[in-house]
Design a protein that fits this description.
alpha+beta, binds manganese (II) ion, EC 3.1.3.11, 22% strand, 15 strands, hydrolase, binds 2,5-anhydro-1,6-di-O-phosphono-D-glucitol, eight-stranded mixed sheet, 9 helices, five-stranded mixed sheet, metal-binding, magnesium
Protein backbone atom coordinates (compact mmCIF):
# COMPACT_ATOMS: atom_id res chain seq x y z
CA UNK A 1 0.00 0.00 0.00
CA UNK A 2 1.62 3.29 -1.04
CA UNK A 3 1.83 6.01 1.57
CA UNK A 4 -1.09 8.18 0.44
CA UNK A 5 -2.14 11.31 2.31
CA UNK A 6 -5.45 12.78 1.23
CA UNK A 7 -6.37 16.44 1.18
CA UNK A 8 -8.90 15.82 3.94
CA UNK A 9 -6.29 14.17 6.18
CA UNK A 10 -3.74 16.86 5.44
CA UNK A 11 -6.10 19.67 6.40
CA UNK A 12 -7.03 17.97 9.68
CA UNK A 13 -3.33 17.39 10.43
CA UNK A 14 -2.56 21.07 9.79
CA UNK A 15 -5.52 22.12 11.89
CA UNK A 16 -4.08 20.28 14.90
CA UNK A 17 -1.22 22.77 14.80
CA UNK A 18 -3.78 25.47 15.70
CA UNK A 19 -5.48 24.25 18.90
CA UNK A 20 -8.17 26.93 18.81
CA UNK A 21 -9.20 26.25 15.23
CA UNK A 22 -12.86 25.30 15.10
CA UNK A 23 -12.74 23.13 12.01
CA UNK A 24 -14.95 25.53 10.06
CA UNK A 25 -12.24 26.25 7.50
CA UNK A 26 -11.63 22.52 7.05
CA UNK A 27 -15.31 22.02 6.42
CA UNK A 28 -15.37 24.92 3.97
CA UNK A 29 -12.42 23.46 2.05
CA UNK A 30 -14.26 20.14 2.03
CA UNK A 31 -17.21 21.76 0.27
CA UNK A 32 -14.87 23.27 -2.32
CA UNK A 33 -13.20 19.97 -3.05
CA UNK A 34 -16.54 18.21 -3.37
CA UNK A 35 -17.75 20.75 -5.94
CA UNK A 36 -14.38 20.44 -7.70
CA UNK A 37 -14.91 16.69 -8.12
CA UNK A 38 -18.37 17.25 -9.58
CA UNK A 39 -17.11 19.90 -12.00
CA UNK A 40 -14.14 17.70 -12.90
CA UNK A 41 -16.50 14.86 -13.78
CA UNK A 42 -18.50 17.11 -16.08
CA UNK A 43 -15.43 18.62 -17.76
CA UNK A 44 -14.04 15.17 -18.44
CA UNK A 45 -17.04 14.26 -20.56
CA UNK A 46 -17.49 17.68 -22.15
CA UNK A 47 -17.10 16.31 -25.67
CA UNK A 48 -19.72 13.62 -25.11
CA UNK A 49 -22.63 15.40 -23.48
CA UNK A 50 -24.22 18.69 -24.36
CA UNK A 51 -22.20 20.73 -21.90
CA UNK A 52 -19.69 22.51 -24.14
CA UNK A 53 -20.38 25.78 -25.91
CA UNK A 54 -22.00 29.09 -25.14
CA UNK A 55 -25.29 29.40 -23.31
CA UNK A 56 -26.43 32.61 -25.03
CA UNK A 57 -26.18 34.92 -21.99
CA UNK A 58 -23.59 37.44 -20.81
CA UNK A 59 -22.16 37.89 -17.32
CA UNK A 60 -21.89 41.20 -15.46
CA UNK A 61 -18.70 41.99 -17.34
CA UNK A 62 -20.20 41.54 -20.79
CA UNK A 63 -18.51 38.18 -21.41
CA UNK A 64 -20.41 35.46 -23.24
CA UNK A 65 -21.16 32.76 -20.65
CA UNK A 66 -20.29 29.16 -21.46
CA UNK A 67 -22.54 26.36 -20.23
CA UNK A 68 -19.76 25.18 -17.95
CA UNK A 69 -19.29 28.68 -16.47
CA UNK A 70 -22.87 28.52 -15.28
CA UNK A 71 -22.71 24.85 -14.26
CA UNK A 72 -19.54 25.34 -12.21
CA UNK A 73 -20.93 28.49 -10.61
CA UNK A 74 -24.07 26.63 -9.50
CA UNK A 75 -22.14 23.64 -8.12
CA UNK A 76 -19.67 25.69 -6.07
CA UNK A 77 -22.44 27.91 -4.69
CA UNK A 78 -24.62 24.92 -3.78
CA UNK A 79 -21.77 23.06 -2.07
CA UNK A 80 -20.89 26.09 0.03
CA UNK A 81 -24.47 26.92 0.96
CA UNK A 82 -25.10 23.34 2.06
CA UNK A 83 -22.22 23.20 4.56
CA UNK A 84 -23.10 26.35 6.51
CA UNK A 85 -19.55 27.70 6.80
CA UNK A 86 -20.10 30.54 4.30
CA UNK A 87 -22.45 33.51 4.63
CA UNK A 88 -22.08 34.74 1.05
CA UNK A 89 -20.27 34.29 -2.24
CA UNK A 90 -19.11 36.78 -4.86
CA UNK A 91 -18.55 35.22 -8.26
CA UNK A 92 -17.33 36.29 -11.67
CA UNK A 93 -20.59 34.89 -13.02
CA UNK A 94 -22.93 36.85 -10.72
CA UNK A 95 -23.83 40.55 -11.00
CA UNK A 96 -23.96 41.00 -7.24
CA UNK A 97 -22.75 39.06 -4.23
CA UNK A 98 -24.95 36.08 -3.41
CA UNK A 99 -26.18 36.17 0.19
CA UNK A 100 -27.14 32.86 1.79
CA UNK A 101 -30.29 33.40 3.80
CA UNK A 102 -30.48 30.40 6.13
CA UNK A 103 -29.74 31.39 9.73
CA UNK A 104 -26.95 28.81 9.88
CA UNK A 105 -25.29 30.55 6.93
CA UNK A 106 -25.81 33.96 8.54
CA UNK A 107 -23.99 32.60 11.58
CA UNK A 108 -21.01 31.63 9.38
CA UNK A 109 -17.81 33.63 9.58
CA UNK A 110 -16.47 33.29 6.04
CA UNK A 111 -17.14 34.84 2.65
CA UNK A 112 -15.80 33.29 -0.57
CA UNK A 113 -14.89 34.97 -3.86
CA UNK A 114 -14.67 32.68 -6.84
CA UNK A 115 -13.88 32.35 -10.52
CA UNK A 116 -15.87 29.12 -10.99
CA UNK A 117 -14.41 28.31 -14.39
CA UNK A 118 -11.24 30.02 -15.54
CA UNK A 119 -10.24 29.84 -19.19
CA UNK A 120 -13.73 28.85 -20.24
CA UNK A 121 -13.07 29.63 -23.90
CA UNK A 122 -10.71 26.63 -23.82
CA UNK A 123 -13.34 24.02 -22.95
CA UNK A 124 -14.50 23.40 -26.49
CA UNK A 125 -10.95 22.65 -27.64
CA UNK A 126 -10.00 20.30 -24.80
CA UNK A 127 -7.41 22.59 -23.23
CA UNK A 128 -6.89 22.94 -19.45
CA UNK A 129 -9.28 25.09 -17.48
CA UNK A 130 -9.50 25.84 -13.76
CA UNK A 131 -11.33 27.21 -10.74
CA UNK A 132 -9.91 29.93 -8.47
CA UNK A 133 -11.13 30.68 -4.94
CA UNK A 134 -10.38 33.18 -2.21
CA UNK A 135 -11.61 33.05 1.41
CA UNK A 136 -11.95 35.89 3.94
CA UNK A 137 -13.29 36.33 7.44
CA UNK A 138 -16.34 38.54 7.27
CA UNK A 139 -16.03 41.96 8.90
CA UNK A 140 -19.78 42.41 9.51
CA UNK A 141 -21.29 40.89 12.67
CA UNK A 142 -21.90 37.14 12.68
CA UNK A 143 -25.64 36.39 12.60
CA UNK A 144 -26.47 39.14 10.09
CA UNK A 145 -26.42 39.02 6.27
CA UNK A 146 -22.96 39.89 4.89
CA UNK A 147 -22.43 43.36 3.45
CA UNK A 148 -20.41 44.82 0.59
CA UNK A 149 -17.57 45.55 2.99
CA UNK A 150 -17.10 41.81 3.55
CA UNK A 151 -16.38 41.25 -0.12
CA UNK A 152 -14.26 44.35 -0.78
CA UNK A 153 -11.31 43.54 1.47
CA UNK A 154 -7.69 43.89 0.37
CA UNK A 155 -6.00 40.61 -0.57
CA UNK A 156 -3.61 40.64 2.38
CA UNK A 157 -6.61 39.78 4.57
CA UNK A 158 -7.21 36.46 2.80
CA UNK A 159 -7.48 33.49 5.12
CA UNK A 160 -6.99 30.94 2.34
CA UNK A 161 -6.82 30.81 -1.43
CA UNK A 162 -6.40 28.14 -4.04
CA UNK A 163 -7.12 26.83 -7.47
CA UNK A 164 -8.09 23.64 -9.17
CA UNK A 165 -6.54 22.85 -12.52
CA UNK A 166 -8.53 20.46 -14.69
CA UNK A 167 -5.55 19.45 -16.78
CA UNK A 168 -3.84 16.31 -18.00
CA UNK A 169 -4.39 15.44 -14.37
CA UNK A 170 -6.63 17.40 -12.03
CA UNK A 171 -4.92 19.14 -9.14
CA UNK A 172 -5.97 21.29 -6.23
CA UNK A 173 -3.35 23.77 -4.96
CA UNK A 174 -4.01 25.91 -1.89
CA UNK A 175 -2.52 28.02 0.85
CA UNK A 176 -3.73 29.09 4.26
CA UNK A 177 -0.65 31.25 4.76
CA UNK A 178 1.49 28.28 5.73
CA UNK A 179 3.11 27.42 2.40
CA UNK A 180 1.57 26.15 -0.81
CA UNK A 181 0.48 22.56 -1.13
CA UNK A 182 -0.68 20.61 -4.16
CA UNK A 183 -2.89 17.52 -4.37
CA UNK A 184 -3.45 15.38 -7.44
CA UNK A 185 -6.86 13.85 -8.01
CA UNK A 186 -7.00 10.08 -8.29
CA UNK A 187 -10.28 9.48 -10.16
CA UNK A 188 -10.29 5.77 -9.32
CA UNK A 189 -10.30 6.60 -5.59
CA UNK A 190 -12.22 9.86 -5.89
CA UNK A 191 -9.59 11.51 -3.68
CA UNK A 192 -7.16 14.40 -3.90
CA UNK A 193 -3.79 13.00 -2.75
CA UNK A 194 -0.81 15.01 -1.53
CA UNK A 195 1.69 15.16 -4.38
CA UNK A 196 3.40 18.57 -4.05
CA UNK A 197 4.07 19.67 -0.47
CA UNK A 198 5.61 23.11 0.11
CA UNK A 199 5.68 24.26 -3.49
CA UNK A 200 8.16 27.07 -4.20
CA UNK A 201 8.75 29.05 -7.37
CA UNK A 202 12.34 29.58 -8.56
CA UNK A 203 13.53 33.20 -8.11
CA UNK A 204 14.48 33.28 -11.79
CA UNK A 205 12.80 31.62 -14.69
CA UNK A 206 12.95 31.56 -18.46
CA UNK A 207 9.28 31.45 -19.44
CA UNK A 208 7.18 34.53 -20.19
CA UNK A 209 3.44 34.27 -20.73
CA UNK A 210 1.53 37.10 -22.37
CA UNK A 211 -1.03 37.53 -25.15
CA UNK A 212 1.29 39.27 -27.61
CA UNK A 213 -1.57 39.89 -30.03
CA UNK A 214 -2.30 42.95 -27.88
CA UNK A 215 1.27 44.29 -28.29
CA UNK A 216 0.45 47.59 -30.03
CA UNK A 217 -1.39 48.92 -26.99
CA UNK A 218 0.91 47.65 -24.27
CA UNK A 219 2.59 50.25 -22.04
CA UNK A 220 6.11 51.15 -23.21
CA UNK A 221 7.68 49.40 -20.22
CA UNK A 222 5.99 46.10 -21.15
CA UNK A 223 7.07 46.40 -24.79
CA UNK A 224 10.68 46.95 -23.65
CA UNK A 225 10.44 44.01 -21.25
CA UNK A 226 9.22 41.73 -24.03
CA UNK A 227 12.22 42.77 -26.15
CA UNK A 228 14.46 42.07 -23.13
CA UNK A 229 12.96 38.56 -22.90
CA UNK A 230 13.77 38.02 -26.58
CA UNK A 231 17.38 39.26 -26.56
CA UNK A 232 20.16 36.79 -27.17
CA UNK A 233 22.06 36.57 -23.84
CA UNK A 234 22.78 32.84 -23.43
CA UNK A 235 24.48 33.19 -20.01
CA UNK A 236 21.14 34.55 -18.70
CA UNK A 237 19.12 31.90 -20.54
CA UNK A 238 17.74 34.55 -22.90
CA UNK A 239 15.92 34.47 -25.21
CA UNK A 240 13.28 33.17 -22.83
CA UNK A 241 10.61 30.74 -23.94
CA UNK A 242 7.16 32.13 -24.72
CA UNK A 243 4.23 30.01 -23.45
CA UNK A 244 0.61 31.18 -23.36
CA UNK A 245 -2.35 28.87 -22.89
CA UNK A 246 -5.07 31.47 -22.29
CA UNK A 247 -6.22 29.91 -19.02
CA UNK A 248 -4.67 31.87 -16.17
CA UNK A 249 -4.72 28.81 -13.92
CA UNK A 250 -2.80 26.69 -16.42
CA UNK A 251 -0.27 29.40 -17.27
CA UNK A 252 0.21 30.18 -13.57
CA UNK A 253 0.58 26.53 -12.59
CA UNK A 254 3.26 25.86 -15.18
CA UNK A 255 5.19 28.98 -14.19
CA UNK A 256 4.90 28.11 -10.49
CA UNK A 257 6.49 24.73 -11.13
CA UNK A 258 9.13 25.82 -13.62
CA UNK A 259 9.78 29.51 -12.90
CA UNK A 260 8.40 32.22 -15.13
CA UNK A 261 6.26 35.31 -15.38
CA UNK A 262 2.64 35.84 -16.43
CA UNK A 263 1.67 39.31 -17.67
CA UNK A 264 -1.74 40.81 -18.44
CA UNK A 265 -1.15 44.56 -18.80
CA UNK A 266 -3.58 47.22 -19.97
CA UNK A 267 -4.63 46.76 -23.61
CA UNK A 268 -6.85 48.46 -26.18
CA UNK A 269 -9.83 46.28 -25.23
CA UNK A 270 -9.06 46.34 -21.50
CA UNK A 271 -7.55 49.67 -20.43
CA UNK A 272 -7.34 48.49 -16.80
CA UNK A 273 -6.13 45.02 -17.68
CA UNK A 274 -8.48 42.08 -18.10
CA UNK A 275 -8.07 40.03 -14.97
CA UNK A 276 -10.33 40.50 -11.99
CA UNK A 277 -8.71 41.67 -8.75
CA UNK A 278 -10.99 39.74 -6.42
CA UNK A 279 -11.49 36.41 -8.20
CA UNK A 280 -8.21 35.99 -10.08
CA UNK A 281 -5.41 38.33 -8.99
CA UNK A 282 -5.71 38.30 -5.19
CA UNK A 283 -5.87 34.52 -4.77
CA UNK A 284 -3.01 33.97 -7.22
CA UNK A 285 -1.03 36.72 -5.48
CA UNK A 286 -1.48 35.02 -2.09
CA UNK A 287 -0.34 31.70 -3.53
CA UNK A 288 2.66 33.14 -5.36
CA UNK A 289 3.88 35.08 -2.33
CA UNK A 290 3.54 31.98 -0.18
CA UNK A 291 5.61 30.15 -2.79
CA UNK A 292 8.33 32.84 -2.68
CA UNK A 293 7.27 34.77 -5.79
CA UNK A 294 5.72 38.17 -6.39
CA UNK A 295 2.53 39.76 -7.79
CA UNK A 296 2.03 43.42 -8.69
CA UNK A 297 -0.08 45.65 -10.94
CA UNK A 298 3.17 47.13 -12.25
CA UNK A 299 3.76 49.50 -9.38
CA UNK A 300 1.84 48.23 -6.38
CA UNK A 301 1.64 44.91 -4.55
CA UNK A 302 -1.62 43.27 -5.65
CA UNK A 303 -2.63 42.29 -2.11
CA UNK A 304 -2.33 45.92 -0.92
CA UNK A 305 -4.88 47.28 -3.39
CA UNK A 306 -8.08 48.46 -1.67
CA UNK A 307 -10.89 47.17 -3.92
CA UNK A 308 -13.74 49.51 -4.79
CA UNK A 309 -16.00 47.23 -6.79
CA UNK A 310 -16.66 43.51 -7.12
CA UNK A 311 -15.70 43.07 -10.75
CA UNK A 312 -12.72 45.43 -10.66
CA UNK A 313 -9.95 44.68 -13.14
CA UNK A 314 -6.25 45.41 -12.66
CA UNK A 315 -3.08 44.92 -14.72
CA UNK A 316 -1.38 41.77 -13.44
CA UNK A 317 2.26 40.69 -13.32
CA UNK A 318 2.90 37.51 -11.37
CA UNK A 319 5.63 34.92 -11.02
CA UNK A 320 9.34 34.54 -10.20
CA UNK A 321 10.39 37.47 -8.03
CA UNK A 322 13.41 38.57 -10.08
CA UNK A 323 11.34 38.55 -13.27
CA UNK A 324 8.55 40.63 -11.72
CA UNK A 325 11.17 43.04 -10.33
CA UNK A 326 12.59 43.42 -13.83
CA UNK A 327 9.26 44.27 -15.47
CA UNK A 328 8.57 46.77 -12.67
CA UNK A 329 11.94 48.38 -13.39
CA UNK A 330 11.00 48.76 -17.06
CA UNK A 331 7.57 50.17 -16.20
CA UNK A 332 9.21 52.65 -13.86
CA UNK A 333 11.72 53.78 -16.51
CA UNK A 334 9.19 53.86 -19.38
CA UNK A 335 5.83 54.81 -17.82
CA UNK A 336 4.25 56.15 -21.03
CA UNK A 337 1.70 54.31 -23.08
CA UNK A 338 2.87 54.67 -26.68
P1 LIG B 1 -12.35 33.53 -17.55
O1 LIG B 1 -12.46 32.35 -18.49
O2 LIG B 1 -12.55 33.16 -16.13
O3 LIG B 1 -13.23 34.69 -17.98
O4 LIG B 1 -10.86 34.04 -17.56
C1 LIG B 1 -10.21 34.28 -18.77
C2 LIG B 1 -8.93 34.98 -18.48
C3 LIG B 1 -7.78 34.10 -18.05
O5 LIG B 1 -8.04 32.81 -17.75
C4 LIG B 1 -6.84 34.11 -19.21
O6 LIG B 1 -5.52 34.13 -18.80
C5 LIG B 1 -7.20 35.34 -19.94
O7 LIG B 1 -8.54 35.60 -19.68
C6 LIG B 1 -6.99 35.18 -21.41
O8 LIG B 1 -7.31 36.36 -22.03
P2 LIG B 1 -6.96 36.62 -23.56
O9 LIG B 1 -7.78 35.66 -24.34
O10 LIG B 1 -7.37 38.05 -23.75
O11 LIG B 1 -5.48 36.42 -23.72
MN1 LIG C 1 -15.26 34.76 -17.97
MN1 LIG D 1 -10.74 33.63 -15.11
MN1 LIG E 1 -14.26 32.39 -15.25
Amino acid sequence: MPDIKTLGEYIVEKQHAFPHASGDLSSLLASIRLAAKIVNREINKAGLVDIAGAIGTENAQGEEQQKLDVYANEKFKAAMEARDQVCGVASEEEDDAVIFNKQLNRNAKYVVLIDPLDGSSNIDVNVSVGTIFSIYHRVSPVGTPPTEEDFLQPGHRQVAAGYIIYGSSTMLVYTTGDGVHGFTYDPSLGLFCLSHENMTIPKDGNIYSINEGNYIKFPQGVKKYIKYCQENVPQEKRPYTSRYIGSLVADFHRNLLKGGIYLYPSTLAYPNGKLRLLYECNPMAFIIEQAGGKATDGTQRIMDIAPNELHQRVPFFVGSSNMVDKVEEYLDTYPDHD
